[in-house]
Design goal:
Number of strands: 5
Number of domains: 1
CATH architecture: 2-Layer Sandwich
Strand order of the largest sheet: 1-5-4-3-2
Helix content: 10-25%
Radius of gyration: 13 Å
């Protein structure tokens, strides 16, 4: 993320406000987190789901990369729950 600029979609900003997640939190997840899912066929840009931790709070951040500039577009952010995710928040539960 060194030379990438972050671009926040309106949806991501709304979720950040609702969930008490800051831009600094997002930056930390992007710098230290782990890609747990990739979506190479997403349109208009390929995206990925990143798991990071803010102290003991897990966060999932979906980012897309604008290939022309390497800017990262923050699509959404949320705190995963054990209803949809297995412990550790790296794998979805099978329904």
């Amino acid at each position: 993320m060194n030379q990438s600029q972050l671009v926040f979609r309106l949806h991501a900003i709304q979720r950040m406000v609702e969930r008490g997640i800051t831009k600094a939190d997002i930056r930390q997840v992007l710098e230290t987190g782990e890609v747990i899912e990739s979506y190479p066929d997403d349109k208009p840009y390929p995206s990925r789901l990143i798991l990071g931790w803010m102290a003991s709070r897990p966060l999932h951040v979906v980012v897309a990369e604008f290939v022309g500039t390497k800017d990262l577009i923050v699509v959404t952010v949320y705190e995963p729950d054990l209803v949809r995710w297995q412990p550790g928040f790296k794998q979805r539960r099978r329904v």
